[in-house]
Design a protein that fits this description.
heterodimer; A: 261 residues; alpha/beta; 23% helix; globular; B: Glutaconate Coenzyme A-transferase; 2 domains; 9-stranded mixed β-sheet; 3-stranded antiparallel β-sheet; 33% helix
Chain lengths: 261, 327
């Protein structure tokens, strides 16, 4: 079957969204994965954007932003940040979210703020590369009951320690997160272009639990910047079904996921 | 009682100054922001700004590329699917502009705290991370305990993180339509424009359309910005371009990329300024710069139906000019 690694990633992430859930999807590929799920199997999900677009299905392809006209065209309600990101997400009410990441470490901490020459320097100097900032991802990571991190699997992205924690995962591992009284339980899984990782109980270190027909355990280990452990019951993730691909491509009308990979 | 209509040039001259705390947008990055107001600030050469920018979009990209910004407080500085803003990047990576980061909700809560005149506001997310421990405004302090400090919750005895209020000197807020007194309706999500309009000391509205007050009397529930918090109203159609204004026009894909690429270098910025800022003075000239063909294409939006209830109250440019002359 002919599909890209990005499409496999979006489908694998979408499979983790279930019918009837309240769900929030970030900008870009997360939104495609979420709306694929909504169309394919997660019927009756209550999805919203952090700006408060409710009940909408994108038209004409991937929206350019979470407040773009492509998603504002058929909403049932428009509200605002304190409502959607605050009362629905930060309050702990939202079941599941999907976020992206520029850098991810083994405890699922995410950096989308910047890259530094000397990240460990106690003085906060200008970044070598300014990224986009966190947006509403900290609300999703602190407060959604569970969430999915989606990212292209590259060694420079999957690092031992992120340069900056924009959105907290399990912090230094174990129960480090507990002292902050967050409403949310932490990252449930990381879905990449090569496979799936889930936290090991107790340590909360992410380990490999799934690989694709298009990848291998060796390839995933080679492209991970920490010594990635492999779960004893690691599984081969089923390929996209024809119906899944059809539904994904109906959402991804402009072919964002077919561009490369 | 005179109406609050002002020309763009007058509004920027009267309500902005060097070194001010300026807030814009409070919409999302490719959404309805007061981009035309930012263009006029660049034309008038404003500098040393402290910008409260949620979320930056092309306006902050442009102001940073112009070297006009010392400090930024933000939660998101990307252009969403359009990529990273190169003008902002250049300013931040060189150390010219420093950026203090918060989460999206915490930025909104800071505006709410400003609007409510609260001393501080509790946070339930966006701490326990470098957003708490790293401060661009206190760069030597690590871990920083001033930015999102921990206090004791007097009711439970548990620790609680708190945020400081934001009270910008002036906010330039884009709205879909305003009446001549400053009652405004926003189509699409309002993001933080409601809180910002109460947090700022002065508020200037940039409106795509001016409508008769009868429209507001028909839909008072939808008037989330009432005239009492508004100081001036600027009529500027297509004022969000190249970003989108819900109900009226889509984002201009070609110009979004073109503009951002121009911001990469000082030369690119100069050329952009000459072509797309210095080249117009009037609304008609501005629209001519965008081009009739392009405008028709952008107005072919899937959100057009959202405007249906309001069309009968839209005032013509002749009527607006008359109101402005009558002041």
């Amino acid at each position: 079957m002919n599909y890209t690694r990005q499409e496999m990633m979006a489908i694998a992430a979408g499979r983790e969204i279930y019918a009837g859930e309240m769900a929030i999807f970030g900008v870009g590929l997360s939104m495609l994965a979420g709306h694929f799920a909504k169309r394919n199997h997660a019927f009756g999900i209550k999805d919203l954007t952090e700006g408060g677009v409710y009940g909408a299905t994108p038209v004409g392809g991937l929206p350019w932003g979470i407040e773009d006209n492509r998603i504002s065209a058929n909403a049932t309600s428009f509200t605002h940040c304190i409502d959607a990101l605050g009362m629905m997400v930060a309050s702990g009410r939202c079941d599941v979210g999907i976020i992206g990441a520029a850098q991810i470490d083994k405890y699922g901490n995410v950096n989308t703020t910047g890259l530094w020459e000397e990240p460990a320097n106690p003085a906060y100097l200008p970044p070598k590369t300014r990224l986009s900032g966190s947006g509403g991802a900290p609300e999703i990571t602190c407060s959604c009951k569970r969430y999915i991190i989606m990212a292209a699997h590259e060694k420079k992205r999957f690092v031992e320690k992120v340069d900056y924690i924009s959105s907290p995962g399990y912090l230094s591992g174990g129960d480090a997160r507990a002292r902050y009284n967050f409403h949310g339980g932490g990252p449930a899984l990381i879905v990449t272009t090569l496979g799936i990782m889930r936290p090991e109980p107790v340590t909360n270190e992410f380990i490999l639990t799934g690989y694709y027909h298009s990848s291998s355990i060796e390839e995933i280990k080679e492209n991970t910047g920490w010594d990635l452990k492999v779960a004893p019951d690691v599984q081969l993730v089923p390929e996209p079904s024809p119906r899944e691909l059809e539904n994904l491509r109906a959402v991804d009308q402009t072919g964002m996921l077919r561009k490369k990979g | 009682m005179p109406n609050k209509l002002l020309s763009m040039q007058e509004a920027v001259a009267q309500y902005t100054w060097d070194g001010m705390q300026y807030a814009h947008g409070a919409s999302l990055s490719v959404g309805p922001d007061s981009v035309a107001f930012g263009r006029e600030m660049v034309r008038q050469g404003r500098k040393n700004l402290h910008v409260m920018s949620h979320c930056c979009g092309q306006q902050l990209n442009l102001l940073c590329a112009a070297g006009a910004v010392d400090r930024v407080e933000t939660a998101f500085s990307g252009l969403e699917v359009y990529g990273f803003p190169y003008g902002l990047r250049r300013a931040v990576e060189s150390g010219r502009t420093i950026v203090e980061d918060y989460s999206n909700l915490n930025f909104s809560l800071r505006l709410l705290a400003g609007a409510m005149n609260w001393p501080f506001c509790p946070a339930v997310s966006g701490y326990g991370s470098d957003q708490e421990w790293r401060s661009a405004f206190s760069p030597e302090e690590y871990p920083c305990d001033k930015k999102i400090p921990e206090v004791m919750d007097p009711f439970t005895g548990k620790t609680c993180h708190v945020l400081s209020p934001l009270k910008p000197d002036v906010a330039a807020i884009h709205v879909t339509m305003a009446d001549p007194d400053g009652n405004a309706i926003m189509l699409g999500t309002e993001w933080n424009r409601y809180e910002l309009s109460r947090a700022a000391k002065k508020v200037v509205l940039q409106a795509d359309l001016i409508v008769d007050t009868a429209c507001m009397r028909q839909y008072p529930n939808l008037v989330r910005i009432p005239d009492v918090v508004v100081d001036a109203v600027v009529y500027w159609p297509l004022g969000v371009w190249p970003q989108c204004s819900t109900g009226l026009y889509d984002s201009d894909e070609e110009h979004m990329y073109y503009m951002n690429n121009a911001m990469k270098t000082p030369e690119g910025f100069d050329e952009y300024k000459q072509k797309y800022i210095d080249s117009y003075h009037t609304i008609d000239e501005y629209l001519a710069v965008i081009g009739k063909g392009k405008i028709n294409k952008l107005q072919d939006t899937a959100t057009w139906h959202l405007m249906d209830p309001y069309r009968k109250w839209i005032m013509s440019s002749e009527e607006i000019v008359k109101l402005m002359d009558g002041r």
